[in-house]
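During the no-cost extension, the postdoctoral fellow (Dr. R.K.) reprocessed legacy sequence entries with the updated structure-token encoder. One reprocessed record is reproduced below for audit purposes.
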Amino acid sequence: MHKLTTEEMKRLTVEEFRESEKLPLTVVLDNVRSLNNIGSVFRTSDAFRVEHISLCGITATPPHREIHKTALGAEETVDWSYHEDTTECVKALKGKGYRIYAVELAHDSLKLGTDTVATDKPVALVLGNEIEGVQEEVMSLCDGSLEIPQYGTKHSLNVSCAASIVIWEVFKQMKL
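Re-encoded structure tokens follow.
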């Protein structure tokens, strides 16, 4: 066994990525503080060809050296936009026909790995602040919430880890 070479990986160029079909999925970052978390979400979004990232509230935007350290250039490939108000961003996505899911522990949340995420429409995933989570007023606009089942003493994950898990699960249900 040996690791794949760059040529064997068949990586897309930036132009090929921009022209490629995207997963009908938008990631909404609701007041995410950590620049490293933001960069990691960009990198995961690139890996699964997420169509868009909406950066809201205090969430920093590229170009930024700290975002680039973890994004490794994905901030140049994945389309993104900035929105001062997360509720207005979510309302606009709903108006475009998106099914909106908060990634949050909530009553009646869908459990990843057990429940099916409705993917008959484009999907938007809202991930919240590292301390407060998704804002309550944003939660009230969502069509549902997605929960990552957890079995230890902590019932929270780093926002970029949670984003990776949920993006992967939605990708599987949309593409595989």
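Residues 21-175 form a domain with the Alpha/beta knot fold (CATH 3.40.1280.10). The radius of gyration is 16 Å. The remaining legacy entries will be reprocessed before the final report is submitted.
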